[in-house]
């Protein structure tokens, strides 16, 4: 199946490139749009093939039905998390007070917050889930928590502009530190659980391909980000963070409420 998907992706890319060249419109924007389209189409093809395959049993098809919403939630999560190196990097460079006495911070230093918080929080969350045992939330609600914290990390980024009354004043770097921290708390709820859920919910005949699909959730998120981050600037800062932040929180609440239905379709998978 992987060969078929790659062939289709290559075909779509080739056709798009030829059309763009014939029209004299092969630009960077064309490349970005092509990547976006592929980022959406490739996972879609995988899901269609797995859902319609005769190798997929009735129970496995039910589990895939439960997995698709989790996949989409993970796309929403990664759309926020991956903006740490785009919109938040711009915020660090243009909107953050980088002076500490006579010392000037490099805005690139904020990119080290993500791996640092992952290293710090990973053993803590491993201990929490082990301690909770059977009382810990199920997979859908862990996904909901992950997306909720990711959304909250962007809601918080609205506050510097709101409190200052403008989006030009340099603000404390602690806003970025707090935002990165909260987002990584969300990642601890979603990312490791997503890998586990993928292996458990995957049809036996498509186990390795389904794991590929999980990583395509990040690819799809970055494909969407290639379009959305173009709208981020000083004038749109507050509303940009608000749309992403409150939108993610709303979908997290919806997933939390729908968790029992997804759990039912997961057919015994926790």
From TrEMBL:
Gene3D superfamilies listed in its UniProt record: MFS general substrate transporter like domains
State the superkingdom.
Bacteria
Q: Where are the transmembrane segments?
A: 30-52, 64-80, 112-130, 142-163, 175-197, 204-226, 238-262
The answer, when asked if Transport is one of the entry's keywords, is yes
Please provide an example of a Pfam family that matches this protein in its UniProt record.
PTR2
| Keywords on record | Cell membrane, Membrane, Transmembrane, Transmembrane helix, Transport
**Record InterPro entries:** Dipep/tripep_permease, MFS_trans_sf, MFS_Transporters, POT_fam
Localization per Swiss-Prot or TrEMBL: Cell membrane
- Main subcellular location of this protein, as a coarse class: membrane
- GO biological process: any one? peptide transport
> What are the record's GO terms for cellular component?
plasma membrane
Topology with regard to the membrane?
Multi-pass membrane protein
What's a Gene Ontology MF term here? Answer: peptide transmembrane transporter activity
Is Cytoplasm found in the keyword set?
no
Q: What is this protein called?
A: Proton-dependent oligopeptide transporter
């Amino acid at each position: 199946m992987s060969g078929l998907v790659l062939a289709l992706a290559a075909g779509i890319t080739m056709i798009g490139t030829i059309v763009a060249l014939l029209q004299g419109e092969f630009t960077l924007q064309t490349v970005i749009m092509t990547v976006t389209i592929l980022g959406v189409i490739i996972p879609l093809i995988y899901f269609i093939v797995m859902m319609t395959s005769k190798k997929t049993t009735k129970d496995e098809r039910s589990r895939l039905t439960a997995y698709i919403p989790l996949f989409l939630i993970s796309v929403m999560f990664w759309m926020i998390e991956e903006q740490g190196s785009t919109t938040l990097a711009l915020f660090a460079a243009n909107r953050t007070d980088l002076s500490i006495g006579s010392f000037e911070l490099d805005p690139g230093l904020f990119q080290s917050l993500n791996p640092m918080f992952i290293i710090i929080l990973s053993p803590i969350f491993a201990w929490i889930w082990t301690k909770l045992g059977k009382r810990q939330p199920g997979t859908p609600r862990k996904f909901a928590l992950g997306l909720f914290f990711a959304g909250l990390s962007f809601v918080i980024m609205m506050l510097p502009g709101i409190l200052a009354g403008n989006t030009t004043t340099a603000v404390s770097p602690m806003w970025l530190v707090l935002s990165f921290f909260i987002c990584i708390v969300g990642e601890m709820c979603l990312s490791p659980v997503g890998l586990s859920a993928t292996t458990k919910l995957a049809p036996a005949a498509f186990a390795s391909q389904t794991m590929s699909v999980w990583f395509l959730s990040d690819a799809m998120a970055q494909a969407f980000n290639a379009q959305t981050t173009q709208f981020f600037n000083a004038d749109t800062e507050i509303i940009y963070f608000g749309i992403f932040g409150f939108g993610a929180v709303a979908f997290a609440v919806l997933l939390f409420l729908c968790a029992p239905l997804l759990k039912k379709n997961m057919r015994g998978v926790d």
